[in-house]
Specification:
Elements lengths: L2 H52 L4 H16 L45
Helix pairs in contact: 1-2
Length: about 120
């Protein structure tokens, strides 16, 4: 092989590697900035939650309201919430599945102790 060709090929490889490394560094910087913004937003939400908790408000409710405001700002559709009818409980108040009373037809009983094969 000719030395000129080898040198040019190595220079081209080095230039390509440098270009790829710069592109990778730029992507990493964009990712770091995005993560920094997400951390800042989480910090702001925690501060708002703490302040509303100090005021005696429902901080979880405020957080959901803030998220709903952002979502409703993005979508202009107005949804009317439906009122739920009063639901009766599925079972009576005295139902306890561990007591074995008041339940259905199947009652669980522990298996026999000892080896499963009879000897």
């Amino acid at each position: 092989m000719e030395p000129d060709v080898v040198v040019r090929r190595q220079e081209a490889l080095a230039a390509a590697r440098l270009r790829m490394q710069e592109e990778l560094n730029a992507q990493a910087e964009r990712y770091k900035e995005k993560q920094r913004q997400l951390e800042e937003e989480k910090r702001r939400q925690k501060i708002a939650m703490w302040e509303s908790m100090q005021e005696g408000k429902s901080y979880k409710g405020n957080l959901k309201l803030n998220q709903n405001k952002v979502e409703s700002g993005a979508s202009t559709s107005s949804a009317v919430p439906k009122s739920k009818p009063n639901k009766k409980p599925l079972r009576g108040g005295g139902y306890n599945p561990l007591s074995g009373e008041g339940g259905g037809t199947c009652s669980w009983r522990p298996g026999r102790r000892g080896p499963s094969a009879g000897g």
